[in-house]
Design a protein that fits this description.
Its EC number is 2.3.3.10. The chain is of the alpha+beta class and about 375 residues long. It has 2 domains: about 5-170 and about 325-384, Peroxisomal Thiolase, Chain A, domain 1, CATH 3.40.47.10; about 170-320, Thiolase/Chalcone synthase (Peroxisomal Thiolase, Chain A, domain 1), CATH 3.40.47. It has helices at about 20-25, 30-35, 50-60, 65-70, 90-95, 115-125, 200-220, 235-245, 250-265, 265-270, 280-290, 330-335, 340-350; strands spanning about 5-10, 15-20, 40-45, 70-75, 105, 130-140, 155-165, 170, 175-180, 185, 195, 230, 300-305, 310-315, 335-340, 370-375, 380-384. The strands form 4 sheets. Strands 1, 4, 5, 6, 7, 8, 9, 12, 13 and 14 form a 10-stranded mixed beta sheet that branches. It has a 3-stranded mixed beta sheet with strand order 3-2-15. Strands 10-11 form a two-stranded antiparallel ribbon. Helix 3 (about 50-60) packs across helix 5 (about 90-95) and helix 8 runs antiparallel to helix 9 (about 250-265). The longest helix is centred in the middle third of the chain and has 23 residues, at about 200-220. The protein binds 3-hydroxy-3-methylglutaryl-coenzyme A (HMG). The site of 3-hydroxy-3-methylglutaryl-coenzyme A (HMG) has 30 residues, from helix 2, helix 7, helix 8 and strand 13.
Length: about 375
Amino acid sequence: MKIGIDKIGFAFPEFVLDLADLAAARNVDPNKFKVGLLQSEMAIAPVTQDIVTLGAQAAASILTEEDKQAIDMVIVGTESSVDQSKAAAVVIHSLLGIQPFARSIEMKEACYGATAGLSLAKTHIAQNPDSKVLVIASDIAKYGIASGGEPTQGAGAVAMLVTADPSILVLNSDNVCQTRDIYDFWRPNDDKYPRVDGKYSTEQYTDCLTTTFDYYKKKTGKDLEDFAAMCLHIPFPKQGLKGLRAIAANEDTLTRLTDRFYEAIIYNQVIGNIYTGSIFLSFLSLLENSQALTAGDEILFYSYGSGAVCEIFSGSLVEGYQASLQEKRMADLNQRTKVSVEEYEKIFFEEIVLDEAGNSIDLNSDESPYALEKVVEFKRIYHS
Ligand code: HMG
């Protein structure tokens, strides 16, 4: 049975910061971000937007009423959860009006969570071919003001509908994973921002890729030459480019895949790191910006989550996949509201103030289709 991605949607918050402005404010050469990291803008989410609202918005952009009746599992991959117990998937299930007899869960392993969700979805569809699974990758990446990771922050969500006989990508069964118990990037329960061993994390990203790809080649007999494009986890685009260079043995293949890589980072360059959704945003960018792909092309994926777990897997583009995509996404991204560095620091790092009874005080109203409206007795109340 062919199982894979039938639909893919993306949601981003309203505000954007130009990294040239951030560089000026931090007294850094703007080319460090633009050329050194290949990053030009970052998405800024206000306090009324979180992984629930972004995830719901991404899913709402692709689902029909028929889909909502067929979905019997909702999986949210995230590492910026709003509750230690209640899964964001439960709230999103409700906001979207999905039929009640569904399983709704949250999955975590840093930037790898949604990839694990995709595998679980595939297994579920193999056993229940008529059902559909909604997999959402939703995150807000905050490293803190003037931190090393500051120019790589971002916010957004990617939603994927996984079904039998999908319209976009058939997932192959060639997955290879690696687990390594390391502290390259982690966030203890009481910390607001992650702790990062920046240089070490970049080395681990690449070493996990090279060693897992060696194992993948041995196990499957495939090599980079077999693929039309490669999508990688993109903490910032230069990291992905370095990864691709680290595994390409043949110059012609590297040139061809580098051309595809630049098409696959167009959205990431203006959004920033959205953690577990980054690799899927890169896939969407590739699909919507490349003229070089055709049905039947094989795409290779490298998912990496700090801590660390990584996975290499692949998929095959379906005939007519272009019909499921959007043409004007870049125009929509260009419509975002630009903020100054001062405004960014105020908006991105604002916190909800609660009274003693757990009710929010002076929370701004947000007219977005999905937004946090208030907190009542410590319960987050959303509008849709
Ligand atoms: P840094 O140490 O400030 O930057 O932060 P740098 O000095 O390494 O410079 C970065 C690049 O800019 C270098 O390029 C410089 O040469 C270049 P490279 O040599 O690496 O190709 N550069 C310039 N280029 C042009 N003109 C200039 C200029 N100046 C410098 N004037 C660091 C870099 C990655 C450490 C930092 O951004 C950071 O800590 N980021 C967060 C951690 C991270 O993203 N790690 C990536 C791997 S781990 C991962 O992917 C998982 C993650 O997504 C989390 C999860 O799984 O949940 C992060």
